[in-house]
Specification:
The protein has helices at 6-16, 30-36, 89-98, 169-179, 193-199, 257-262, and strands at 2-3, 20-28, 42-50, 53-62, 80-86, 109-110, 122-127, 133-138, 156-166, 183-191, 205-212, 218-226, 246-250, 267-268, 274-275, 285-290, 296-301. By secondary structure, it is an alpha+beta fold. The strands form three sheets. An eight-stranded mixed sheet has the order 6-7-8-5-9-12-11-10, sandwiched between helices.
Length: 302
């Protein structure tokens, strides 16, 4: 995700959420401009780990982008978050409160038992210093990945998934499942007062579809069946804007991306698959794309 002040972001993610720094580098040059789609881009990029999962924070030193809109809502299609699994959601919530973290839910919510897919899951939305949405989540026995139930003293365990709001689940499945090869691993329809208070959206009724590949966090599609007043992502959203997120997807078939773009099955931000061997990212080629709702995907070849 793109941040405005790296030191402030690092203080939050490492001191409050106990992420650990993996790498810290400054990046510029023509391959980076093409990869990000930002002319004249110079960035500080910091990779952080929690459990076995990693995130990248990117501060564009030049050119600066726009702030997250002050009125963005959880049903707007620019919405994206990461779901951080916690051992004890009550303890995690108290820790966030002690650090005066901005809440985006009215409080931790336990989803009702009548819902076979989500019943017993507890979650809470909050925001980081740049007002990106984040979630803490805990799974009851029998739900979630097996590693979330390992005995541990750590409070923050790892990242289960990234969630994105979509306009049409079927259109998103044609992109993520049929084009990119993700597999559907779960589906549910969530509504009622707990879901409303979790998302802070009155009358929320969601079709939720969980997708995964062989390893790494999943992607969760959130389609609001009600209310249908969520706004489309800005058509001019750029990688240096703070509302920009990108999910990195690893493939052995990056050479086929241009063909998919010509068939209008994928939308390129980078003009081509970019040779990134000179960049400190650990992959030799990559390209920035957008899904049907404008969410960023960086597709890379190791």
């Amino acid at each position: 995700m793109t941040v405005s002040d790296m030191e402030r972001a690092l203080a939050f993610y490492t001191r409050v959420l106990t992420f650990q720094k993996v790498s810290d580098s400054e990046v510029a040059g023509r391959p980076y401009e093409l990869l990000t789609g930002v002319f004249g881009a110079r960035s500080r990029v910091v990779r952080l780990r929690v459990g076995d999962e990693q995130i990248e924070l990117t501060e564009f030193l030049a050119p600066k982008g726009r702030a997250v809109p002050s009125d963005v809502r959880a049903n707007d299609r620019v919405f994206q978050h990461i779901a951080i699994v916690v051992r004890d959601i009550g303890q995690a919530y108290r820790l966030l409160r002690e650090h005066a973290v901005e809440a985006a839910s009215s409080g931790p919510q336990r989803l009702p038992d009548w819902n076979p897919g989500a019943g017993g899951i507890s979650a809470f939305y909050f925001r980081d210093p740049d007002r990106h949405f984040l979630e803490i989540i805990s799974f009851p026995p029998g739900k979630g990945m097996p590693q979330w139930h390992d005995a541990t003293e750590r409070l923050f365990l790892g990242i289960d998934h990234t969630a994105i709001v979509v306009n049409d689940t079927n259109a998103s499945l044609r992109f993520y499942k049929d084009t990119l090869g993700f597999q559907v691993v779960g589906e549910s329809e969530n509504y009622d007062v707990e879901q409303e208070h979790l998302n802070n959206v009155f009358g929320a009724r969601l079709r939720i579809t969980s997708l995964r590949v062989s390893r790494g966090p999943g992607v969760e599609l959130l389609e609001y069946l009600a209310p249908r007043d969520g706004r489309a992502a800005p058509s001019d959203l750029h990688a240096n804007d703070l509302a920009h997120w990108q999910t990195t997807v690893v493939t052995d078939h990056a050479d086929g991306l241009l063909g998919l773009a010509r068939d209008h099955r994928i939308s390129l931000v980078s003009p081509d698959v970019i040779d990134t061997t000179e960049l400190p990212f650990g992959f030799h080629a990559g390209t920035l794309t957008r899904d049907p709702d404008g969410h960023g995907l960086r597709i890379v070849a190791p």
